[in-house]
Amino acid sequence: MGNDSEVSDLEFVSAPKPGERKHTATIMHPLKKKLSALWALLGLDLVTILMMLKGALPPTLGMAIYQASSVAETFQTVGYLVPIIASLCLCMQPRAKFVEIMLLNAASTALAYALSLLAAYCGLQARWHSLSAAENAEVNAELAEAASSGVIATLKELPYNSSAAVVCAIWLIFLVWLSTAIRARRKHLFFPSVMFCIFINISMPYTSFLPSWGLITPLLHRITIAFLTGYSLAILVGLLIIPVSCRLVAFKEITGYLQLTRKVLKQQAAHIHKLKALGALDNQISASGSNSLLTTPSTEEPARDIWSVGDIRETLAQLGTLHSKIGEDIPYAQREVAFGYLTAKDIEKISERIQELSIVLTGVDNIGTMLRRMVRSEIQKSGFSGGSSGEKKAEDDEEKEIEDAIKILDATFLEFVNIIDGAIDHSLLLLELNDPPRKKQLELRKEFSANISNVEAYGGKACPGDSKYLSALEQQVAAFQKLRMTSLESWKTTTALEQAEMTFNFATQFPELHSVADKTPPTRAQQELLLLLWIENLFNTGTTSMMKLARFAEGKRRSGEMDKKSFIYPSLQILKEWVFDVVSTDRNDQNVAGETSTVRFEDSDFRRRDPEHLPPQNWYEKLGSVLRCVYYFVGSEDSSLGLWAACATMTIAILAFLKNTHIFFINQRVVWASVSIAVSMSPTSGFSVFGLFGRIMGSVLAMAFTLINYYIVDGHTGGIIALSWLFMSLDTWIIIKVPRQAVIGVLGLVTHVIILGYLTQYRKLGVALASVSGQEFYPVYILGPQRLLCVTAGCCSAFFWTLFPGVARDRSELRKGLGTSLYILANYYSCIKATFQLRIKNFETEAQPLLKSNERLTQIRRHLYIKQITIAEQLKEHSSFQNWEPNLGGKFPSKTYNSISVTIKKLSGHLALLSLTVQNLRSSIDSPGESSVWHDDIVSLCKMLDMTDYSFANILCILSAALDSGNSLPPNTTAPPSYELDHALTQLNDDIFNLKHIVNPEYCAFAASQMLSAVIREDLVKLVSDVRLIVGEIDFSAAVDF
Q1: Where is the Integral membrane bound transporter domain (predicted)?
Q2: What whole-number distance in Å separates Cα of residue 836 and Cα of residue 858?
Q3: Is residue 861 within 8 Å of residue 828, measured between CB atoms?
């Protein structure tokens, strides 16, 4: 019967015989599987389909309302602009983003209207001064006679004036340059700049033709009303039909991030369990079969055996992308006006916990790397050359002890995953981020208000969401700490460390990377101990971060703030920050591929100084500084892009200002070729090459959809408008699912609307009235290819003027972006050092100024971390688009650049984990109840640390400057040595790091910080080597004849 029911779904394909039913089902099953895979690849769920239909609704409404006679009389020949502008508003965006972009669109339209009036006035003055008084009077008399007789003059009947055309052409060049340069400087103004360019590209040619104010002002007024009507339709749909708030988007992203966190932790737990079950060292030897593993661990790719962590890396990549989106959407969520539970401060606190969790996950990702390093170290040490039976027995003992360490890690890591999993469930339930059923929400509120528990309902155990679960979770964390300490003590006992190994010397943990040659190499047991202590600190950091989130959720629930919704609105400070963010160039959102930013802080002490000018001292110097900013802007790369955009526009728009071609320009609607340039102009050449093919293919598909749309309903206007909603929603799929290539979907929408908008406009007005603007009527099978040709010509012009003058190359932007990333890392490291120095001063006092400084440093550190993640995502785009650039000369060293990018990502994660370790070290040292002599020695050691050593930041700045400028590195550029504790320890109790103190959390924190310092130096050695391969090093020894 199961087979029969399955076949019944397939009987519409054919009518097989009863004996062939099973065979038919077997044949069709792969087809259904492929269709399911295609559906999953497209990502078509209910929310996506609704957003696609929502995005196509405003232009559909724009074409529909034009069929009303009153609307057609109002807009006349510019009615097609309403659906075009409505489609460009992208109403499916979340509310705060949408409101911001609509305010900027309206402001850009108002500015374009005012500047068009000014340009028209200048053109009229040029026209009137180039003609005699008699000629002007004759033209005015003819226009007045035509108006009184009810005859409408067409464009062909208007006199051409070269002076007015030249003035309007100059205004067009200037305005296109200005808008494109500002868009290049502030990427978030992309769509307002496009709206501005559309307005001036339409208005400038007409204002050069029209000889009087009586013809110009009504036209500009109708264009402005058409723009505002398109905005109104988009606002109506965006805010009233399936509204989506940025708060909801941010909450969904946070929930997804926490769920992915659980997934990656479980994947890592399964990976460690696999190492335990198979035997790490044994498997590695059998996989190699030789001494092929005797290479540097940092430069070798992981083997495709039990060390393979492809699934983990893939999930971590998803987490990185999602974390970048969270950092982009959190500010918008804080600006929302809503009726809910969580305020802007609550969202900020949750984002802080998310950031700490992301840092912990970076450490989790490195667990496998550290294990592999330890195993390969033992392989290198022994060589596996056979040897005597005694040597073989020693190798077996070492292998067994390494596997014992993995077994300890397997047991503790599983418990760590259970704690994190419970804390995530508890937090999501109490904060109502995972949408529990309404009945469950009411039960939770009732339990917390009465302080009761449903322990009995769950077999005597508290469950996530229960009022007693946090206490149970804290007890579980305490038990977990005891388990870890017991495991370490057990490992110390079974390892049988010698007395010389009982005191761990952190300076000798990685002798191959140390600058001092006579250091005693660390023993195998010390390496294992260091790894276990580092993982112990990682567990402590992870549980601390997640417990903070769980306590925050518990506090919100117990305070009653989650019992009743309240009106939430942004504070005055948030609004001020929003205004500053709109005009700032330092934003985290990514509207256009290839955005790179510099580090900027609100405090002037952290801004880059002008190397050519001292700070201004009087009003005259301050005024000169402002004027100098204008001078620098004109000579900047952003201004160059604006110049090339103006050249690309005038390559086509020049036809509108010449006597022999201005009629052709209007007649054949060539204006849309110049409009497509504003949409297609790319900041980099690689993206331009890729975008050229994508935009042309998108326009071809849009034209095909338009013809299908027209003929499937046999050309009936009602059917065209109704069916266009479905076809235009296909274009919005690209905007929603591939936002980096949103321009392709936008051009598809514009192509679809232009063809059908013109067609429905001609049908409503009639051919005679619709042709007053000078545009000839064509049937759809001619109009479609003509529009496609115009859009293609605009895309090709934009492509030529992006590639030919040598604007920004993706390869050069990749190199400069890596330099910017290194500069941010140097700032981040300096901020960590300053934070640690401040915490040392704060050991014995809690003074208010120190607390304020700590908060300020924390904000700067978080800002730098988010900026680093954002730039990392941008560098991925540059790395992918550089493959599309023409390769003239030698090959591009993409492997070296990718290696630098990966190393920078590792450095960023290690530094972030070091920062979090420093914070936990400070909190553990200052914890009440500690009065031991060992504790006092730790405090004294912290105070004696040399915090004036900024050699790490110095080398990062040198590498950053070399990549940014392309200059060679200084001679003998090497990574600085790791900081040694020997000198400080000799002035204290040299027994401070004896293993008898292993149960103290500060012990693990110090071990982790020193291990991270050594790993950071290892990455820095690799980074210096890769940068040297790219830019070279100053060295004239080859020219000396010894």
Answers
A1: 665-801
A2: 11
A3: yes
